[in-house]
Structures
1.
Amino acid sequence: MSFIKFENVKFVYPNGFSAVEDINFEIGQGENIAIVGQNGAGKTTTVKMINGLLKPTKGKVIVAGMDTSDFTTAALSRKAGYVFQNPDDQIFHNTVEKEIQFGPEVLKMSESKVKEMVEYSARLTGLTDVMEENPYNLPLSVRKFVTIASILAMDTDIVILDEPTAGQDIRGIRLLENILKELTAKGKTIVTITHDMEFVVNNFNKVFVMAHKNLLKITNPKEVFSDDRLLEESMLMKPYVSEIVSELGFPGQITSRAELVEYVKKAK
Ligand SMILES: Nc1ncnc2c1ncn2[C@@H]1O[C@H](COP(=O)(O)OP(=O)(O)OP(=O)(O)O)[C@@H](O)[C@H]1O
């Protein structure tokens, strides 16, 4: 059964610019989806319609049984938490702790539940030691985790991450991978926009490929990276491993480091 459903969805910004033309898809509860595609394809516009920040100009968006056109953004954001692409569009408190606390307090969680959720989210995002800091004194990559923590603390059924990998080093990527695992284990539905193809290969089974204001294909990473036409149309780069593998003339289905190591070991 679908938990998120887009039916013939079009979105036109107030200035008349059409960013999404005609999108149809369904996401089941507990699914973990990556959205990839060229800049300006309409990825952010699409996910903002899931938590009601934007309402479709045409068509229907149904989230957890709610037609988003009939509900306020406040009501929808209790179901779907959206982590903004740019943390500075989201952060407005002067300590990390206050920022994370804000969401659960708005949701009127009990004092002990707020404390529990803040501690849990801070631990998961590696922020425990910077709780008293002003977020604006922290690097952008850490500010991103502050925004992720503030959404995790709300314990929404749906978590939307917009470009979480941008500017992250290996520690940040590992933290993100752990967060995805933890959320999946808790049965959360996760939608992640990313340009990092290595991250896609290592963490997702289902990929939505967007281009030209539409959803081109719903597939898995292996199919994306073995479909040269799709790659070209959506202007996606293959993961580094896939590039090396094709230069070496190895089988094209190898997309991750682990698979490459396995293949070379067997071939020795
Ligand atoms: N508020 C707005 N008013 C008018 N046009 C907008 C607005 N916000 C975004 N757009 C335009 O809509 C198109 C789709 O933008 P969107 O942010 O959804 O794309 P995206 O696929 O997420 O791109 P990126 O990977 O660069 O973040 C772009 O051409 C963008 O310039």
Note: The first helix runs from residue 43 to 50.
2.
Amino acid sequence: MSFIAGPVTVRTPASSANLGPGFDALGLALSLYDDVTAEVLSSGLEIDVVGEGSDGVPKDETHLIVRAMYAAFDLLGERPSGLRLSCINAIPHGRGLGSSAAAIVAGITLANALVDGDGLDGAAAFQLAADLEGHPDNVAAAMFGGLTIAWLEGEAAQVERLDSAVEVTVFIPSEAVSTEKARGLLPETVSHADASANAGRAALLVRALTGAPHLLLAATEDRLHQSYRASAMSDSYDLMSSLRADGIAATISGAGPTVLAFARGLGDRLPEGWALHELDVDLEGAHVVVT
Ligand SMILES: Nc1ncnc2c1ncn2[C@@H]1O[C@H](COP(=O)(O)OP(=O)(O)OP(=O)(O)O)[C@@H](O)[C@H]1O
Ligand SMILES: N[C@@H](CCO)C(=O)O
């Protein structure tokens, strides 16, 4: 196997998972991006990070993008002799906007682009991303763009992708909550009534997000995860509840603590010290940037 020298740049979108009732299944790609450039070196590993996470992420082989690249190269049969990575990050870490999924998908997409010949096909790339992330919802949206419905057939990750044109505002608190911590707050079992309520709302949500926005408030009602996680993100839970009480469809984005609202013009609801972005749905997913 051989490699091209590069450099190659990959752009990967942020994503919001769950969207209320679609826990671990629904994902929406958002117009906030990380750009990562990689090139092959004769030896060594050089990593430069600008923007989100620049102070926190490791600059060695434990860097998540490098781990994903190596995992893809290992499936393909060989790693390059050395690598240089340059990351320009806009997706905040540990906020529920799919930063880890974007890093994993960027790494796999870059590895494919640096191989001189056939890389992993779409199904193999998605399976690897879902295995590395541990659940498929964010990686589906980051890889394919749009609105994604992901599920598992045994261990095999599956995805169905739809277009969506909803407008979104995200409210991002300054403090992170790790996905690991937020998942640890979930109960082992839930009631049949709660499970069936979520199944109905999740079905309705797919319709609401693909051309029936008047259904969004009802369709984003959740009983499976948001209330269980409220203790780790009480300001976010309060903001989401107050937006919903005013008729605005709002959810906790992914594992939180970002609040996502399907509306615009909400600047007056922004808590002090938080950041706000008005975003569109990204329809492209991760892709090589052609210059
Ligand atoms: N661009 C990146 N480069 C390197 N490491 C990253 C990058 N993005 C995320 N990570 C790693 O992933 C961690 C955040 O992952 P985590 O799953 O907790 O949150 P998230 O992906 O931002 O949120 P969510 O999964 O709820 O959408 C970071 O602390 C960092 O270790
Ligand atoms: N579905 C996941 C998304 C975060 O990665 C969760 O809520 O834990």
Note: The chain has a mean pLDDT of 97.
